[in-house]
Amino acid sequence: MELLSIPRNCANIVVDSLYNAGVRLVFGIPGAKVDGIFDALLDHPAIRLIVCRHEQNAVFMAAAVGRITGHPGVCIATSGPGASNLTTGLATATTEGDPVVAIIGSVSRLQSTKRTHQSMRALDVLNPICKETIGIEVEDQVAEVMLDAFRGATSYPRGATVVSLPLDIAKSESKIPAFPSVSFSLPDFGPSPISCIESVGHLIEEAKLPVLFLGMRSTAPQVVAVIRNFLKLHPMPVVETFQAAGAVSRELVNLFYGRVGLFRNQPGDKLLAKSDLVLTVGYDPTEYDANLWNVQGKLRIVHIDYQTCDFGFHYRPIIELIGSIEHNIKCLAANIRNTVSHSESEICRSLYEEFHSWRKTAVPEEVSGLVKPLHFISCLQRYVSPTTTVTCDVGTVYIYMMRYFFAYEPGMFLTSNGQQTLGVSLPWAIAASLVQEPPCSKKVVSLSGDGGFMFSSQELSTAVQLKCNITHFIWNDGHYNMVEFQEELKYGRSSGIALGGVDFVRFAEAFDAKGFRIHSEDEVESVMREALAYEGVSIVDVSIDYSRNQELASNIIPEEYK
What we know:
It contains 22 helices and 20 strands. By secondary structure, the chain is α/β, with parallel strands linked by helices.
């Protein structure tokens, strides 16, 4: 890397940096403080600019690119409200481990200390929710700051970084070019000391009921591959957090005891309580607080992750294997002897049967009335290919889907868990469509409640104009139901949860999408098949039956359960 003989415009150096970092999609909304970057993008043949309808949704799309591909997604916003509108999306990305680089414009350096149009101390606003926020102060910093932002977003724990580019610098020039592609790659982690790995191996050999508890940092393809090989060599029960969905393959489903989160009332929760050794892999406490699944703080835990744990009373690992999860699991598999199939125990057989018992009643004998959630999920499971990406918004729909919908490949079933952010599913579905090869060539399915859908429904226009192939199901009950049923459990009544007033079929048609409606149980299969077969963007308004929702939070396992 050498200095340029002819100075290059700084906005072009930003775009050169994006390309060298492997970025091929940029999401954003234009504005006077970032129009230099938009202009530079116009001339770049390999980077596609996706204009969104709201900055928050631009971050959501960038975060989905980061989660699906493992490489930072990129979004751009102008100064003032453009930058502040990124807040929720950046907080979600950082909490949930999605690498994102956000580029924001700012007023010129001369005006930065004055009260002027669209002036805002945006980095002060965004810094608490991001891994790193960097303001470029001189032209020769542009290439270095861009490099640092990508390396920061990609290093563990992954999350969002922000670069602020003043208007006058974007128009200026520098002789320092963008760093080459190799500079954006981080060094590999190695395994933990062999003595620690051997100690964990002995603990597993001695355990009567070891359980593998997979978290959100266990879903990288190379990590999933070694976990699956480990389970083939040393079968043991497995539990996933919501964001670890897809880590367990179809052929290993006999070891899978479901996903846990929110309420301690699942078979997986009982399995953790019964275990005498819990091996957490890539677990983050934001997914499912340890005080909820290790109530008495007595479980023996081994922490396997890229980073040290958040140590406390309810999470006190006896050993931590810090470093490459891939290498540590691989080394651990080679250092275990004399293991038995723990899933054959009476406890495991009973809990496995309990986990699958819902299937017996998923399809009601009398198919009538409002749509039952489990009937819908059982149909969706049949009609959606295992290679179809499914995105799920937060709400009651996400509790049902994360408990009962199976996914067998990582990055194919996405939800917001750490922040439980409403409105993610449609923007994520758009991003999932765009990262396909070729773009928008396969069906993507997204789901939301009627409340969550309206948080990002304006991106329906984006999806249609991009020619995405998305079927979006709306579980419609006219309420913020996830809040409603929990208020009823607490207070015996609900408040502030009534919605309604939207005809989603006509709403879809207004955006030139296709609208479908499922009024009752007897229409589920026929309309679902028709909607999934439709080529293009479609919305399905599902009249959902939430009459039994309080059961989602009932039968909490007692603290003394062992």
